[in-house]
Design a protein that fits this description.
The chain is mainly α and about 80 residues long. The protein is about 65% helix and about 0% strand. It has one domain: Terminase, small subunit, N-terminal DNA-binding domain, HTH motif (Arc Repressor Mutant, subunit A). The chain has helices at about 5-15, 20-25, 30-40, 45-60. It is elongated.
Length: about 80
């Protein structure tokens, strides 16, 4: 993976906006919309973004990725 693609993945986690992530990753602002769309469609980038999200969930919640809490449901 190129450094720009790696940066795109990290920047994408900020606001989940592919166009803005491409601009922040130093891709051309004029073609950022198309580049963001194309990068999001690549399977290895999609997989890497999911991995980053899972790692963040594990770090924040101290629970393993995919953990499902089965408790009583609260109704308001």
């Amino acid at each position: 993976m190129t450094p720009k693609r790696y940066n795109f993945c990290l920047e994408y986690l900020i606001d989940f906006n592919a166009t803005q992530a491409a601009i922040r990753a130093k891709f051309s602002p004029h073609s950022a919309r198309w580049i963001g769309y194309e990068l999001k469609r690549k399977p290895f980038i999609e997989f890497y973004i999911k991995e980053l999200i899972d790692r963040r969930i594990e770090r924040v919640s101290n629970l393993p990725a995919g953990f499902c809490f089965r408790g009583k449901r609260r109704t308001f």
